[in-house]
Amino acid sequence: MNQKEPVQQQINIELGEKEAEGIYSNLAIISHSPAEFVIDFTRVVPGSPKAKVHARIITTPQHAKMLLMALKDNIDKFESRFGEIKIEASANPLAFMNPDKLGQVN
Asked: In what order do the strands lie in the sheet with 27-32?
């Protein structure tokens, strides 16, 4: 019996002008339910008590885990080429905490 190899599907991804500019973020707030992960990308400006969410990504738990694996793979490749990415002791750990622990999120 011949086992067929999986067919690789090619996807053409369109990148619009606005999206190609990108959005800078230095804070991601991650929350989840049994059905989805929500990642809010914002940026904190020194001296400002507010931060606006500039993009929200909602995805399935499976895709969130695949994103984690893809980020890990890319970070490993980056570090093997350019050296270890250092995280300062003063880095804001709130970026990866449950929003309930951050206070009010509007």
From this structure: 27-32, 37-42, 53-59
